[in-house]
Design brief:
The complex is a heterodimer.
Chain A lengths: L3 E4 L3 E3 L2 E10 L2 E9 L4 H8 L7 E3 L10 E3 L5 H5 L2 H9 L1
Antiparallel strand pairs in A: 1-3, 2-3, 3-4
Chain B lengths: L16 E7 L2 E7 L5 H22 L7 H6 L10 H16 L15 H18 L5 E5 L2 E5 L8 E6 L7 E7 L1 E8 L8 E2 L4 E2 L3 E8 L2 H14 L3 H6 L5 E6 L4 E3 L7
Antiparallel strand pairs in B: 1-2, 2-3, 3-4, 4-7, 5-6, 7-10, 8-9, 10-11, 11-12
Helix pairs in contact in B: 1-4, 4-5
Classes of the chains: A alpha+beta, B alpha+beta.
Chain lengths: 93, 262
């Protein structure tokens, strides 16, 4: 193999066109990278004919619900004492 | 609670065990709902909390003698660390790659893998409980939750997502028999997640919840999305196998179509 950097032709894939680049040193392939073209995600999804996934908007509810546990941003010990999880823990005792 | 004699139930007549302990700087609540002898339940709980204390000894950034602190100041090399520390650092590097660098253990300038460690440690504990005869349990470590099986036969666990402005209310209720739920946000400890690309605390998203099979991954993804700010929701939507729910500082709420809401 000749030393140097070689770029292959563009191949279409589900994620958009992809091009492979290899680096040859000392007669051996030293590195291979797949370059996705274009890098813009929205454009590549458009090319593949798929809609970009989005999160759906909802009204922000404030509920009192029958639950076993609560997921929330991590609290300090003081925050825990005032939390719904602390009340649930107390109710189980 | 007092233990009963030789495997007989103690004073608590309900099946299972409930225990809360302060570990890793936060209250950890464990519920084991399996109808096992009392001594077996307490042995399982001791195993869970013993493991979490060991994790704290290895990973705490508040302890100068933890492996993470020593690694950070160059007192030891990664190859000299325990397999657990090496595995965690390896996973954190993976999450750094898949989050475009937004999950960054060096975001604060010091090595701090806490955004993954808590979830990972709880996931390991949950997997161990499952493997040792207690498939029905819930572990809540400071708001990061892992549930397995059922709280009572026939119904799934119900997990509330805390309302980001009302400490005593929830804004979504999830159900599951084998899910991990991690939430990251600014409403408890202020803007503490650093956007590593801008070098300042992220403030755009008030609450990000990620739901999936693995609590470590969910934890890392939630932290990364908070760091991303406005770009977080569309990045979350692109994740495979992980559902999400987001509330912005502007009170707008979003969720993925596959979120297991009640």
């Amino acid at each position: 193999l000749r030393p140097g950097t070689f770029t292959g032709t563009v191949a279409p894939t589900d994620y958009g066109p992809v091009q492979v680049r290899i680096v040859v040193t000392g007669g051996r392939m030293a590195d291979v990278t797949a370059v996705q073209l274009p890098t813009d995600e929205a454009r590549s999804r458009q090319i593949s004919g798929r809609a970009a996934p989005i999160l759906r908007q909802e009204a922000l509810n404030a509920q009192n619900a029958n639950i076993d546990t609560v997921s929330g941003a991590s609290y300090t010990s003081q925050g825990y004492r005032a939390s719904l999880q602390a009340a649930l823990d107390a109710a189980r005792r | 609670m007092l233990p009963g004699a030789d495997g007989l139930p103690g004073p608590q007549q309900l099946a299972g065990l409930h225990q809360v302990e302060q570990v890793m700087g936060m209250p950890v609540s464990l519920v084991i709902a399996d109808d096992l002898p009392y001594r077996a339940l307490t042995a399982l709980a001791d195993g869970v909390f013993g493991w979490l204390r060991l994790v704290d000894e290895l990973f705490s950034t508040y302890r100068a003698d933890s492996e993470i602190s020593r690694l950070d100041r160059g007192a030891i090399r990664l190859r000299d660390c325990t397999p657990e520390v090496r595995a965690v650092i390896d996973r954190c590097a993976h999450f750094w790659g898949v989050t475009d660098g937004y999950f960054d253990v060096y975001a604060t300038g010091r090595l701090d893998p806490s955004g993954y460690v808590k979830g990972w440690a709880v996931q390991v504990a949950s997997d161990a409980l499952k493997a040792t005869g207690a498939p029905n349990h819930c572990i809540n470590a400071g708001g990061d939750v892992r549930v397995s099986g059922h709280p009572v036969p026939g119904r799934p666990w119900r997990i509330g997502i805390r309302h980001p402005w009302h400490p005593a209310k929830v804004c979504w209720v999830l159900t599951g028999t084998d899910i991990a739920v991690a939430t990251s946000g600014t409403y408890e400890r202020g803007p503490h997640v650093i956007d590593p690309h801008r070098g300042r605390p992220a403030t755009y998203l008030r609450s990000v919840t990620v739901v999936g099979a693995d609590l470590g991954a969910a934890d890392a993804y939630a932290t990364a999305a908070v760091a991303m700010g406005a770009a977080g929701p569309s990045w979350l939507a692109s994740l495979d196998g992980y559902e999400s729910a987001v509330v912005g500082e502007d009170r707008q709420a979003f969720r993925s179509a596959g979120l297991p809401v009640q």
